[in-house]
Amino acid sequence: MQDRPGADRPRAESGPGAGNALGGELSAYLRQHADNPVHWRPFGDEAFAAAARRDVPVFLSIGYAACHWCHVMAQESFEDEETAAYLNAHFVPVKVDREERPDVDSVYMAATQAISGEGGWPMSVFLTPDGRAFHAGTYYPPRPMPGRPSFRQVLEAVRHAWTERRDAVEQNAESLALGLGQATSAGVVELTGPPATIDAELLSDAVRTLARSEDPAGGFGSAPKFPPSSVLEFLLRHAAVPSETAQTAADMAGRTLAAMARSALFDQLDGGFARYSVTQDWSVPHFEKMLYDNAQLLRVYVHWLRLDNLSLDPAGSAYPATEAADLAERTATWMISSLGMQSGHESVPGSADDAVQALASSLDADTVIDGEHHEGAAYLWTAAELLHLLGTDHGAAVARIMNVRAEGTVTADASPLHPGRALDAREAALWERVRPILLEARSARPQPARDDKVVAGWNGLAVAALAEAGAVLDRPEFIEAAQGIARYLERVHWRPEGETGIGTLMRVSHAGQARGIGGLLEDYAFCADGVFSLHAATGSAHWFRFAEAILKSAEAHFTADGTLVDTTAESEQVFNAQGRQHGLDPFDDATPSGAAAFAGALLSYSALTGSLSHREKAGRILSLVEPLATRAPRAAGWMLATAQAELAGPVEAAVAGPPGPQRDALHRALLQSPSPGLVIAVGTEADDDDGAVPLLHARTAGPDGAPQVYLCRNMVCERPVAAVSELMDRLAGMTG
After folding, report:
1. Which one, of 293, 211, 288, lies nearest residue 249 by Cα?
2. pLDDT digits (tens, 9 = 90+) for 242-276
């Protein structure tokens, strides 16, 4: 029951540390809350020490800059003076940017789901002063709603439990921590046992399981519907290897790729994908645009092109290569122009003078107009607007083909542009004529804010995607952008340590300065994988050495005691919250599983170096495949994709001989191949003067001095081949 007005007037904390302490933070999300009357503190020992000193719980609020409902709860509750005063008096309020601290987000999300049965952001968690959770939820409204109490009611109930039933609170907190510890330690991989033997039929069974949950509208499951990026990567790799289920995998991937490309999830004007769809048919997006989504989706669209889908049975599932290539080019261009930064913090839309050095994290879901947040406002159109801008005939036609009607899907009269189907030739020609007009008009509107935080792992995903897009689409500027990002990661995020050479990869940077925690397993794995892809595209031994250094550092940080874990216990409070147990999550989330990506990087490294120990280590991680393949394939796409690469070889290709058009043609043909896990090195021992890439050792040009390719699989090499046609035939046979 709520207090009577004035009956329990809160007392603001006095003394050192009182007041909102977020003003000096660099995170865009934390800065959004720096002017709240809530006395927010950043996550850290000081905040928890204050809670212990005052003998009050910690109220932990987790979100991110592009989160629409985070903005809503901020306006309704955190900007309300009375609510803030109560919160300040009876709790120590702590704000966390989940993108900066995924270790914090992960454990408290598990706690929230265990306590409330739901998860999401904003996340609202109540903690003991040592970090253990005892009550949690997500969004709380300012007034009670059916099935959901008001935020003030929750605060009062938690305060009452803390003061009147402390023993029960402590018992609940300890029981939950122990349970989370057991769950998180269950996924830890022992790296000392025998490596897994991957059964090809198991991967086919995973495809059959996925087929049973496919939505005819594309994708899997119902609303809200997220792009299944990791699952698509598995399906595309599976389709590249002859089997009874290869065509099924290709068909599923094609249907989903086509549906997303033609939907409101994809920004039909400017490019780039939104985070997810509110509706099952992809017609109403949740409008934030995240780097990690676009990097992953760019890569799978490029891999669809590598699959050469025109050779597949097109019945009802073809997604034309021309359409996919256009979408991939627009997505890569959008990533560079809208998220690209100079010196880590300056935007470079439309600039051709300065190379991109890093990519920002996201664009907000909301647009701020006259001080009010409006979700998706920059992207919505009314039929009247289209008629006004394009004239009666063209405006009416565009409204029809882009599903903008008198009754809107997001507001009363406004909708996002999307055809929801393939356009015919006349419609496509009209759309290409009017798109620049609409884009110019949209650019004059207030635009969503950008979160300029640079996350190492997400930029690693972008390095891989842009390098491969540049190679497949013959767009060298994409490869140069990937190199600019890799140089930034090496200069800003990478910290070599002394003579041992074991460095540390920092997770986050702002304005060209790394800060905060060291990277998680996923950061190391995504960056190593990305830089290995960049090495394949450029042939630069420098990128091999950098990827090797990242991988060896990951081994030192995350496998030191013979097991693989996700984090290195950066926070004592997080460690307490999960029962003082290290853990490993084998499942994909918005990004691939760190364990699966690490296994993939280990496979690439083993192929480039001949290291059996690294291949065996990857195989031990892939022991997770068998229990996940048919039980939860939608949550284990990257593990399945990595298993497909391991099963296919991986094939090793060393392109040797003098530089020039003939070597370039052989290299380009390999980069176009869909062979899962194909590893490519280019050059000669003379080019690689310090012997960095073992795969190139003793590889020479042909007797006539012409370039040639050495193909090897499972430590067995075939005779070198010098013609592109023979190379592709041989590679197809080895992959099969």
Report:
1. 211
2. 999 999 999 999 999 999 999 999 999 999 999 99
